[in-house]
Design brief:
The structure is a homotetramer of 333-residue chains.
Chain A (H helix, E strand, L loop, with lengths): L12 E7 L3 E8 L4 E8 L6 H18 L6 E7 L3 E2 L4 E3 L9 E2 L1 H9 L2 E5 L1 H12 L8 E6 L4 E7 L2 E3 L30 H4 L1 H14 L14 H9 L3 H25 L3 E5 L7 H14 L9 E4 L4 H15 L10
Parallel strand pairs in A: 1-4, 4-8, 9-12, 12-13
Antiparallel strand pairs in A: 1-2, 2-3, 5-6, 6-7, 9-10, 10-11
Helix pairs in contact in A: 1-2, 3-9, 5-7, 6-7, 7-8
Chain lengths: 333, 333, 333, 333
């Protein structure tokens, strides 16, 4: 409409940024979750946070110019490990090279002249699932992400993320399921993470191999990884299958505890380990049903994310960008 | 993923239905607001509500079968004049042929075996704007829809629709702006609607013609309608322009009252009259600024909907469908 | 319990402060709204904000010491005209001697070492009504306060105050009910306030006296005030009764507009003018019923505050104090 | 004010009912939590639910008449084991004599002609703590109640109870803390409840006695109960102290898991076992600090309820009564 400039204009795009240990992905995304442009670069090339921010902002600005310019871009959302939504800072990230507390949201807002919001990867994954994935339309759910580093999760209650009073809620990986159990990297014993993370899987595989009296393909592998273990499952290897079943059993207990406390509509699982499919999920579900409090049994849906791994967190970051109040140094003309 | 059937499946589509006096439009829409299929039929062909429901359900079922079947469809959302979200009923619709209270949501839920939610057109329009339009990312806003029948509106506060204790909030068309002013169809005098609806516009045009001392194209028109009046504005006709300016002035007062009470982030306007563009919007904005309380002036954005007229309410109805709890007679197999 | 000091202690008291043009009242209040101690001093004795803050803090500290000490006091809440909850500042108060923007919450927090929250008087009145008065148990309601200075109001939706995007919502006194009507102090014409505030009442009385053909006690009064006019009503003076009825009629229109927009459960009225009782309220109710949109008529309760004038805002300020996050310079020992 | 009857009246009282296995307590409570009248009778005298409801309603009606009559009473709130707020029913209560699903709220609403809400005891306890106790002013907290029957809890997020999608959230007693641990009455193993309930305490005491090489007062007790064990602690008995410390250790683990998931502002403890004071709470706190995720450590307050045992749930039930929409068969006259 030619006369639309008589009144205020609306911005229909945001920038979503997904920062991981190895790679930073950034994209311009519209209201409906269409990725108009996407690119990435190597996070670890920038051990200094200032030079990293410079590189990131240069790239984001160039992409904004390419896709409609500042008049069309509303705000920026960031997914980053140990990101605290309440402070806008990365706080003591174990797996990133930048140590201490880094006010990343403020740094980007200064450089880009746009509103910037930041959250940790589990929170962003849950936002992505709510906006565009399996949790769309749900109000009370939990998203659990199992990755190399560990296990993260995010709780939604009444349609909103429950971040906790300091923004640290969701540490399901560090709930104790076995008093005096396996030693965890966090210094405690019996944390769920020690049984169900990638490392937990491998440790269980090693125990299974050692205790097994039957031959197993696992013992011939060059390296025990989730991928190689899953391959052995697919070949019908009993020990591999039992390994994955044991991880599923522990995952089922952890999820049952979660469900007994929260009675969510659904638990949504993400992470590479979901590739194990039935080898993991069937025993997980049996264990879940055996351990969840009986009045909840049968009412909690357990779902695997339907979003693409390479897109989920960029989309989730774009959803966060919409949640922040608009702010722009660039006046509407 | 081949093993996904070990755990619960997710449904990624809903049905959106937009019922208007003349035409009923229905569509299958996915999570991201993509309309996969859309069709319509003539509402007024079915003066009997039962036969109307039969026709509608037959058509919706056929479309569901065509687009993936019941396993992929989660729920149904309906936009209908005088629809009450809290009761699921059409309640005494002035402009529909079905009189009294009609439990339409329940009737469709019975026939379709799916969860059904229903709301009035202003509520649905606002949901559409929030999900896919100008209000995306906003928490406190108002959507005002000006149509032939009258003026509807819907308030969002803190990210949620404010429907009022009986579901009747938003009757901005029947707020009094002129004590003892124009007679309204509702029986009272001075209602905003009598000045800014299509009928109000025409009445103002007639007054302007009668009082005008200069010749005007308006007096040569076969029929005074928003469209013909706007055409005269575009041709530079002074009386037509003054007519539209007067409507803009009254609209500005009505919106200023709204803004003084609610201090919203934005007011979003929809309806055919927005086609008047600057002839309406410029005087509206001037009047708004003159009448809004001074500490709010300059902080309220006034926006025109960016969604297509033919899609907005089907999309809004799909957004409502996601808001209702899932329910299905059709078991996941 | 002797061992309670093994775990954290709870604080069961707050300070509520009510700042008005003439008088500042402050009190220590417990969880249940019992006023343990209350005192006041003359606001206008301190034209300089720094000396005012010093006096206020000295007095509050002394009262805290008297009633259990800092270990028992959790936080402070303040009611002040033109107070903005979102910023913690007094912003351009027309009726206070301190001009411009005054960061009062921060100033008190620094001096007292306690969390401090601040809000305008209409917001505080509504909090008081919700915590301890007529709105207890309600989620959607409006509180309208009519005072000498003007007309304030506060909206609650879904159990929470709707302050608007800048904290300025509720300016019902400056909604236009008569295009081109009475001149308002705000520079516009036809504001509701010009008809229903104390000043509006007096102007209406003057008009009624001038236009009246019958003798009236009003013309013998030394001064026209709400009180003297009400006294004449009580004596049966026709012109006084008509004056109050006319104010009631305009109030009814203003409240009807409010109700047509928000469909609240109740509208609660406070302020000295409520002393007029039936002379005001009966015509107000008739006018309200005549002007509110028909589907809402009969469903909105109109209530007069049941709290004592001298306690309402100190109690409301105490309720605000509970709403702010606890913070204390004083460590639990 | 004589004219107040020109407008609507407000009701300032509610009825709170606390139903337990042995005793039913009921009270008339005002807005500020003052108990105006309170009485009780023996629950177990009425094995038939209909006669129980008759007795309860007769008594409540008599008390209403005594304290101001129906014009002053707004609604009724009920605390009952296995009460489901979402359905208004008692659902399969293990410890009550009435079996199956009992629509108690509807039964009372019919008889009393007032709005009735019902919730389980853990929910009610948390409401009581929020309205009048340690959680006043908090938005994110957990209340854990340890009683003879077991362990209940209720979560508040963002100021509202998180009941879960079926109303069953909070089953902390049945989270697994020891894979393959103690047998629980629910059929599973390792539930927290088997270690920290009264029965869990006694089992731990028996184990400690059996394993102990030193003499202990515990072995001379006629009956092992929380009370007698605490008495032995107070006398300095080593085995009793170790018993209580072991229960505290397990409680600390359970609360640490809760806190790692939810990062609440506080956890509030209620129940007779809190009488153990430092014998329980000191080891609990040590265990909590050792097991909670490190970034949360130090930020979660652990509090013991400050409300009187005999009043907490009647007050909590009164708070629930305010939360339900008003409804009355008795017209305002």
């Amino acid at each position: 409409m030619e006369n639309i400039n008589e009144i205020d204009k609306i911005k229909t795009r945001v920038v979503g940024i997904d920062i991981r240990e190895a790679r930073t992905t950034y994209a311009v995304v519209n209201i409906r979750g269409e990725i108009l442009g996407q690119d990435h670069f190597c996070t670890s090339d920038y051990p200094d946070i200032t030079s990293y921010v410079t590189e990131l902002c240069d790239r984001v600005q160039a992409m904004i110019e390419e896709y409609g310019g500042y008049e069309t871009v509303r705000s920026v959302g960031i997914s980053v490990p140990s990101g605290n939504y309440l402070t806008g800072c990365i706080e003591h990230a174990a797996n990133l090279q930048w140590k201490g507390i880094i006010p990343l949201a403020a740094m980007l807002q200064d450089r880009l002249g746009l509103a910037v919001a930041l959250a940790n990867d589990a929170h962003i994954t849950a936002l992505g699932e709510k906006a565009f994935g399996s949790a769309h339309g749900m109000k009370d759910f939990v998203v659990v992400s199992i990755s190399h580093g560990g296990v993260g999760s995010c709780i939604f209650t009444n349609g909103l993320p429950h971040l906790g009073v300091n923004g640290f809620a969701g540490e399901v990986g560090h709930t104790c399921v076995e008093v005096g159990g396996r030693q965890c990297g966090c210094g405690r014993r019996g944390c769920l993470e020690t049984y169900i993370s990638d490392r937990g899987l491998i440790m269980t595989a090693e125990q299974m191999i050692a205790e097994s009296h039957e031959p197993t393909l696992l013992s011939e592998l060059e390296e025990l990884t989730p991928r190689t273990i899953i391959e052995c499952c697919d070949k019908g290897d009993r020990v591999a299958i039992n390994t994955m079943a044991e991880v599923g059993r522990m995952l089922g207990i952890g999820l049952a505890n979660y469900a007994s406390l929260l009675n969510p509509e659904a638990i949504i699982l993400t992470g590479d380990m979901m590739q194990a499919g039935k080898w993991l999920l069937k025993p997980m579900r049996q264990s879940f049903d055996a351990h969840v409090f009986h009045n909840i049994r049968g009412s909690v849906r357990i779902l695997v994310s339907i979003l693409k791994e390479g897109e989920r967190d960029v989309l989730g970051a774009s959803a966060l960008a919409w949640d922040v109040k608009e702010y722009s140094l660039f006046k509407d003309s």
